[in-house]
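Reading a protein record of the kind used here takes only a little practice. An example makes this concrete, so a full record is given next.
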Amino acid sequence: MTAIRIYEPALCCDTGVCGVDVDQSLFEVTATVRSLQNLGADIQRHNLATDPLAFATDETVRAFMHLVGSTGLPLTVVDGVTVATGAYPSKSQLLAFAGLADRPQLGLTEKSASGCCGGATGCC
């Protein structure tokens, strides 16, 4: 099974709704990660403030932090390979990383600009 790890900067919460301004990207990644976890995907988020050991024990992350520092976070690693830095992956990217991109019946596909996801029925 593919292991997806998202290493985040120091945050007070994982949802993005703990402050005055809601961070939409945090809100969306939180919902997508939880949905993927519920489907059995091996996906985890690590917050620098609450889980610094995860940053120190992963060689890929440790090297990234040494070279770029926390300003390059979030960092997404799939099976030990860096796949995204500086921004959270989109829902479609996370689905692809998890091997679920071709399963629109899961209800996790992204809507197109027209509001539909395509497929046989044209709707999500």
About this structure: Strands lie at 3-8, 42-47, 75-78, 81-85. The chain has a mean pLDDT of 84. The longest helix spans residues 24-38. The first strand starts at residue 3 and ends at 8.
